[in-house]
Amino acid sequence: MKKDGKVDGQRPFKLAHQTLCIRAINFNRRSVVGYVELAIHPLVPNLRRVKINMSINEQWDARFLYNDPSLEICQGDAKQRNLDYFQNFHLTSMTTVDPDTGNGEVTIRLPPESHPLISELRPFKVCIEFSLEQPKGGIHFVTPNMEGTPAERSCHLYTYKSLYENSSRMWFPCIDTFSELCTWKIEITTEMGMTAVSCGDLIEVMQMPDRKSKTFHYFLSTPTAAPNIAMAVGPFEILVDPNMHEVTHFCLPHLTEILKHTTGYIHEAFEFYEELLSSRYPYSCYKQVFVDESFIDMDPYATMTIFSTNLLHSSRIIDQTIETRTLMAAAVAEQFFGCFLSMASWPDAWLTVGIAKYLAGLFIKNKFGNNEYRYLVSKEMKLVQDYEHRVGGIVLDPAAKHGTHHFFVWHRQTISPKYAEIFQKKAHLILRMFEIRIGQQLLIQVLNKLLALAVSSAQQKFLANTWGNTLLSTSSFTKIISTVTGKDIQPFLDLWVSQSGCARFFGSFVFNRKRNVVELEIKQDLSAKGALKYVGPLTVTIQELDGSFNHTFKIEENKTKFDITCHSKSRRNKKKKIPLVTGEEVDMDLSAMDADSPVLWLQIDPKLELLRQVTFEQPDYMWQYQLKYERDVVSQKEAIAALEHYPSPATRKALTDVLENEHCFYKVRIDSALCLAKVANSMVTSWAGPPAMMTIFRKIFGSHSSLFSIKDNSTCHGPFKKSTCYMPTEVFEFIMGLFKYNDNSRNKYSDCYYRASLIDAAAATITPAITIIGSGQGLSTDSLTTEAKRILEEITRCLNLEKLLPCYRHVVTVSCLKAIRILQKNGHLTTDSTFFINYAQYGVFRDVRITALECLVDVIKTDLMPGDLYWLLDLIESDRDKYVCHIAMRQLIDNPPFKRMEHNPLHTEDLVERLWKMMNSTLSHDSRLRCDVADLYFTLYGRTRPTCLVIPDNLVVLNLKDKKTRMNPAIVPEEMEDMFESDDDDEMNLNSSMNAAESDDKEINVMDVSPLKDDVSLKRKSDMAFDLIKSDHGMMTEFMQNEDSNSKFKFKLKGTSMEQTSDTMATDKKTPKTPVTPSSANLSFATELSKFVGVKPEEDITVASSFSKDTDRLSDDSMSPSQSSSAPASAVTSQPTSFSGLFSSVSMVDSMDHSRLHKVKKKKKKNKKHKHKHRHEKSERDTSVDRFKDSEQESVLSLDRFKEGHKSSESSTVNSPSVFNNAPSSPEFEVI
């Protein structure tokens, strides 16, 4: 729907159409060459600049300025190492180039020749050439190290984005926001053996005259945002869906057979969504591409989705089916909401994400059953509750409330990846709650209305704001709800969307026999992290002897008591069938219950109508009745969790009955088996009869309906030694017998997951070793116990068999690696990190690598091995598989090598500097990985400065006026921002009249010119995340008048990292033969800066610049990415006279003297006996004032030195890390 906010209002033009042409792809060099053409319609007659998004990491061929503050977040004070400092700059850096606020990395100044036509609001085109060499973000090359052509080696590439991250700018110039829609023409040229897949309809495939390459032409007529554009190129095998010809599947060579089986059901998802929404699929085609080394398992785009090859499976695999089909169905749902109907801005992301997840949940409910759906909802609710309780609340609308996390939630590229993952789940739960409020039928009508308006809007030709209905915002969604249903949902949004946290209830009850009532008490815990105060209705269900009864209460206070009158009376010895909530009547053994109470069990919010956590107290026999006779899987799951704390024969019987009941949901039976193992351990002294699982396993073995129960039942045999650290011999022999007699040769289904579970069960039987080793001797197989030796032999046999006959996804190898690590931790094997490092190398299957890295992280924590830790960090920085890097970092976060404030050999300054450099600059190409490092930094050191670092003396400032000691923010304080004026050319009047006539077909190509010979542009990192000093209006006017418009826009993008680039960043090695004239942008900035600091400008300024690779030290020449020759000595000694009183940490001497004298007088009046003491304090304060005077002069001198290094910079910025709260909305950079 049309956005009511200011997002579009801040951009003075509209993008009508964009052409993306990929001219050449080189897999050997991993490079791409192409160009884009943007058709722009101005909205204001005085449009002079166009800001676009692009990411460039090396040299440019044309003359222009470029600002990408994400290349290095903190560029000023290298001594700062606290996370809050970094996150403030991180947010500012992302905001200054955020296209939602009208900003971008490149600002194109339109030539004067175009001004007359722009004043008439006529459209024009901007053409940009670009190239990428070995890109590290946005696009990924998979190039196996084999012999042969790229097609023979199955080389391929694909683009990607991370959750909500708009990363299209990483591989082609665009306006990288979901709110800027346009039509697309995409041309991709590849060699003959390759196939190019992209968004839109395939118009034609043209063979080039050289017969060595061909061009694929795609056209997307539906208005689509740049983040929803993707491509994939490779030697794909093509499969047209036999049930739905509009759907096409692509896979790598030799995978067609399993592709047919995996995708054979996809037409059912389309039919379900179209029937449910009463609306056709919004696009004319749909493509599924399966690639290797995928960034995420499912990455949806307009008319196509990129999947991981690991999701493919044959008909012999059962365990993978549900996961794969769920992901594919979710991808189709995101075609409706997410790609076709996209979010208007980041605060509206919860709507598109939540609706897509809600529709996917309804598909699961329809295809896999209501039990699977409710179990999924319960699982997601538990994950949300745990995260909010452990980390902090998740607010769906970040514009409504400030978060308390160590990261900012206001921007999609600054949030933690784990936060983004839980954000999706919470959005789904809130949409489900909304469905309960208004009803599923009305909600579906609302979604149908949204799609109908979007389809009607997308079919219109381009006019201003005609495509607004294809953007979904919270305000427009509220209006549609009010129109369709007549209900006001604003209170619901204020409670669950604008606030963070979930409700936390603690309940207990007492039965009053005289009054025949249940006295229920419900409390809310508001002190816990992530808690939300809930005010509203709450449903309580009581199962009585005469049936189930629902009661709704109004929760208003933190502690509320209710009296519930029972409908039944105690029967004592009367026997009668008891009706359940499903209408079924069952016989129950009531001997365990209270003879005077008719209550069987009680539940709070049994239908999961709220996002809540319930802790309820009731007798154990009630939990047992609830587990055995309640038919809802969520209620059964809650009962199992409670019975874990009530080990007794009655609990054992209740769990056994559920486990043996084939009519129970299989996941409930699995949970019962796991709980039964824990109960058996707690009852080890009183347990009678054979071990718990052996009898049950023999009963259900061979049952087709108990497949998963059998697999997990075998795993549950192992934990029977936790209490006594002793494994019963019969249990161990039973598990070894399962290995010996397992024969799956006549089964058409694979048993690889079952064999993996047997290895897990065997590993669970391992107990700590009690071995006496002589001096100078190490562990060997001779010192192993009999049980450990047999387990090791079985693991070795399985690993060797895996190398010859690998199973699906190497699940057996994964279990073997975990078992070996358990043997090491229990002292049976010597810890050897090299073993896991070999399995973690690039080229090994992804699941095996992830498991090996998990074991390696555990080795690092237990053995404190710095070499292994730094090897792991090297892998995270340089490995090609970005998903493995992401998982490795999450493993370090979940299992950190040391705790916060802990004295540990790994807790060193080198590690701090390494992590700081990684998140500051090294991982600039991957915001997901950068935020992962920030999470690890927070886990290890918190939000303050790490304790292992020594605080420099000059970093602490004593503020006499406020009587505080605080960290010096940097060189320039925040108050200096008011001294700088904005460039007049940046002030766009967004409220200009839009009554101009419709533009004709006449267009101007502002690129059709030739470059200057003498002028050279610099590609460089941004000096700051925003501007501090801008050229005055007069100088800029003079600059524009002398500007030569005959310059060609030719942008060359390079994807290499900053560490690998040359120190010299100038595109031309020649220096100007003549002094720089006043019309130069260099002198314009230098002159203005010289006026400000009182320094005369130099006549000659060197164009070539360099930057230092060492970002860990603060110096005048190391932290500036773009440097010039040093200033004269006089520049260093000169001091500006206008800085007095600007520094927040330094007050005026006069005002300080007045404050001091006033306080001295008050103290004299109060206590005259200590006059000499006051005089002494006065002299001390005078000394402090003198120190502050010196400090002020030193600060000014350091500012002068700091600014000298930026005289030749062509950007109107000053590298000051202290100013980040009130940054200008956009940088001053031009392409000329």
Structure write-up:
The protein is of the alpha+beta class and 1232 residues long. Among the domains are: 146 residues, no CATH class; 108 residues, Immunoglobulin-like, CATH 2.60.40; 153 residues, no CATH class. Helices cover 36% and strands 15% of the residues. It has 32 helices and 30 strands. The protein has a six-stranded mixed β-sheet with strand order 5-2-1-8-11-10, with no helix packed on it. Strand 25 and strand 26 form a beta hairpin. Helix 4 crosses helix 5 and helix 23 packs parallel to helix 25.
Compose a concise summary of this entry.
The protein is an alpha+beta fold and 1232 residues long. Among the domains are: 351-496, no CATH class; 503-610, Sandwich (Immunoglobulin-like); 723-742 and 751-767 and 783-898, no CATH class.
Please give the alpha-carbon distance between the first and last residues: 37 Å
User: Measured on Cα atoms, how large is the radius of gyration?
Assistant: 34 Å
- Class from secondary-structure proportions: alpha+beta
Strand tally, please?
Answer: 30
Low-confidence stretches: 1-9, 57-63, 957-1155, 1160-1181, 1187-1232
Count of helical segments?
A: 32
* Overall geometric form: globular
Task: Please state how the strands of the largest beta sheet are arranged side by side.
Answer: 5-2-1-8-11-10
> What multimeric state do the chains show?
single chain
As a percent range, the share of strand residues is 15-25%
Can you summarize the main beta sheet? Answer: 6 strands, mixed
Overall helicity:
25-40%
Mean pLDDT, nearest integer? 77
